[in-house]
């Protein structure tokens, strides 16, 4: 069976542009989306798709061992396997947060560890698709592409640089100077990307990279490029697969540029249309209070959306005041009765630290989603028997500075409720023993 995919206008769902065309918006100026030939896909039964995808999942047959490329027919069906650039992305741990869930009164709580990936974030899921398509275009000589460029708050630039390095493609990243973590900054530098640290915020970098890619010599890698959505959507499909194709009740996910929210919905909608699932989970998009334009629009009943200037936040990767993918995200949230929540700096820091005490090691963005979950539980909106997923978007080691500042009580504007600083002692047995006993006594009381 021949499967097909192409670009179309995401708003009208009309028009057709081939995936090897360099195009990011429709003639009307709207965002594009990748459409699939669902009639062809439906020629295989739902049971057939589940069996095929299970036979590939986390096996060793390249490239299908990838959590993304194991579902190639629903991602990029036309690309030759030889052109795929994969770093074995996806297939990440679905962590049963048993202790934390019991503390909250939601024992069926799970954390999708998307940060346990090659570059330490969920951005790998989308970047493998985009760089593979660019690699295919370059090899087929259909267009002359000199390199790939992106604006980033850290994780996108890391993923782009790594995948381009693996493919031997030039990468250019635009970063807001001084607004990303040192761990994120070193990633594109190490992978030989041209790293431009600019005196602006992410939204300013985004404006500049769109101008930089206008002549099409550099290919645009930001999430307004809908190819990335095709990789990111497999996260939602994989969550369902990891539960033996049962749909969870709730999914809490951090939101910044909002491509991840629309991608989550797209993957779930497509496997629903293939008959694999029959219902949708309730999705809650969680934003930092300092960068919350979607939350504001939600609270005013979706009457209008106003961009803002995002403020300082520990959740630097979602410090975005004018999200590019807002129209797709809003449309999906409205269609499926999705929710939006926000978290203050105090709330996200405490949620991150509190969940870490039960075996996790969350990034601040996951802390935002955890804080959103806590609010829903406290308001009684989640039943104790509900199955709840929190999407962890990046590895906590990328944000060790923020976590260190929390436990040292040097994080501006935050009182660390769950601080656990190191205890400095003389190297004497009695002092060490007394410290251990005091700690054990405190632990048993809590």
> So what's the oligomer here?
single chain
Please write the string of helix (H) and strand (E) elements: EEHHEHEHEHEHEHEHHEHEHHEHHEHH
Strand residue percentage: 5-15%
Strand line-up in the sheet with most strands = 3-4-12-9-10-11
Number of separate helices: 16
Q: What is the overall pLDDT average?
A: 95
Looking at the structure, what is the overall shape? globular
Give me the secondary-structure category: alpha/beta
The count of strands amounts to 12
N-end to C-end Cα span: 60 Å
Task: Report helical residue fraction.
Answer: 25-40%
Q: Rg from C-alpha positions?
A: 22 Å
Give the low-confidence spans. none
Main sheet record: 6 strands, mixed
Layout of secondary structure:
Elements: E1 5-9, E2 32-36, H1 38-41, H2 46-56, E3 94-96, H3 98-104, E4 109-113, H4 123-140, E5 147-151, H5 155-167, E6 171-176, H6 182-190, E7 194-198, H7 202-212, E8 218-220, H8 227-232, H9 234-242, E9 250-254, H10 259-273, E10 282-288, H11 293-299, H12 326-335, E11 339-343, H13 345-356, H14 364-378, E12 388-392, H15 400-407, H16 429-445
Parallel strand pairs: 4-12, 5-6, 5-8, 6-7, 9-10, 9-12, 10-11
Antiparallel strand pairs: 1-2, 3-4
Structure report:
With 446 residues, this protein is α/β, with parallel strands linked by helices. Helix content is 39%, strand content 13%. It has 16 helices and 12 strands. Helix 4 runs parallel beside helix 5, helix 5 runs parallel beside helix 6 and helix 10 packs across helix 12. The model has no long low-confidence stretch (mean pLDDT 95).
